[in-house]
């Protein structure tokens, strides 16, 4: 299924990179301490398809991003905090601009979070944590993310809150759409019990590629963006219109399509600015839900 | 030469009146508003005579674009359902209580205003020079991004509003970005005053420099916020909005704040 989902559709629309606003770093590659059954790039303790980025590499691209006028930086994996240089990388990023790190919050050390709080205080810019938890209790979360991960993640959130951060809790919708409000209410309640009384919550759609294509189903052949769909559509709703991703294999078009060979565009940011074909099932989800990877503070809007 | 810059008014005609008096007393020769005349407060139509009487040129905010073009919502850019519910209450109230003549007037407002003072190219916009409803928060906007916006807009001094919190940043080549704050509601800091910005442009003619100099002053402004709260209650506007006016803490529309700005608030 996943292979079919990545098949390029013929004669599809393309999208230009209008403005390189967000620069992502695949800082832990596809290495993760967890092996979530819905992961769209199938990260796991054994997946070496993409490797770690070093502080030196990150700095090289941060420097290049200045010329490009990038607004903010995102750090993802895999689990970013498996990268031994992660704290230093975030400290470096905060010298350049706002940084967001996407984490499962299960491997934190108190000392790291203290250092990061100090780095944010010393910076003009914000450090955001986005913590993935896929349900308001172990019963919903753990079958997806692994035994005991709910309790560990909630403890990680508690540590962030104790250090003064207000993490954004992101949850992939592994329940029926109609249950959103119930799930959010349960999240508010459980997080309050762990000291987080004004949680920031964000629901993400499922991306039916990678492990998720095996767990449920892949994209159907008609779940593709057509030329007709692009008429009167605000193209800035698509992440690839304003983002690129640095990986150890080069600069990629978006954080979702890494398993697609065509997603790797170039060695430098400057050379990655070409149009990209919206040929994949995941593009359809991005079209439906709009800039799903970007923080609410920065979601581009139509003029 | 001093010029006064007002951000979103959000129907707060009492603060607008106080700001006009204050800026004029401080020597402002011209006044501008950067858009979002409506929202949040009571009696939308009381704003327009003040703008007219004092020759205040206005940029079109997302709110003005929506009301002027009979759109269904304010294009505020909120992402949270509760935020959108509150935004919709404000929007419907403002739309229903804005005269057709004032809606027509808002429709023709420009998305930006440009002028030059002693060689400084000034650009007034609402959110950002490229998008009316783009949020440029201090903690979520890199300096090189602002440099790019200034390059693309060919401006030396960019003034915006939209987020509701004033700030400024020095850019490359002596350029500057300034968020002038808003008159419409306090800044989520537990104080009831609102803010506007005065810029004093000076032509020293010294040192052979091509550009004049200017200084930016953020002005805290007290106004009769208790009267505003009474009038909001009389108009059946949400208690949550009234609480903000009386306490200085934002109670709604918080999801778009970056963590750093959110942390200093109460909610």
Question: Helix tally of chain B?
Answer: 9
Q: How many E strands of chain A?
A: 11
Rg of chain B, nearest Å: 18 Å
- Percent helix range of chain B: 25-40%
Largest sheet of chain A: 9 strands, mixed
CATH superfamily of chain A: Aldolase class I
The dominant shape of chain A is globular
Domains of chain B, number? 1
Number of strands of chain B: 10
Tally the helices of chain A.
9
Structure description:
The complex is a heterodimer of chains A (303) and B (267). Chain A is α/β, with parallel strands linked by helices and 303 residues long. Chain A contains nine helices and eleven strands. Chain A has a single domain, classed as TIM Barrel (Alpha-Beta Barrel), CATH 3.20.20. In chain A, the strands form two sheets. In chain A, strands 7-6-5-4-3-2-8-9-10 form a nine-stranded mixed beta sheet, covered by helices on one side. Chain B is globular. Chain B has a single domain, classed as Purple Acid Phosphatase, chain A, domain 2, CATH 3.60.21.10. Chain B is built from nine helices and ten strands. In chain B, helix 3 crosses helix 5. With 267 residues, chain B is of the alpha/beta class.
List the main descriptive attributes of the protein structure presented here.
heterodimer; A: 303 residues; alpha/beta; TIM Barrel; nine-stranded mixed beta sheet; two-stranded antiparallel ribbon; globular; B: 267 residues; Purple Acid Phosphatase, chain A, domain 2; five-stranded mixed beta sheet; 20% strand
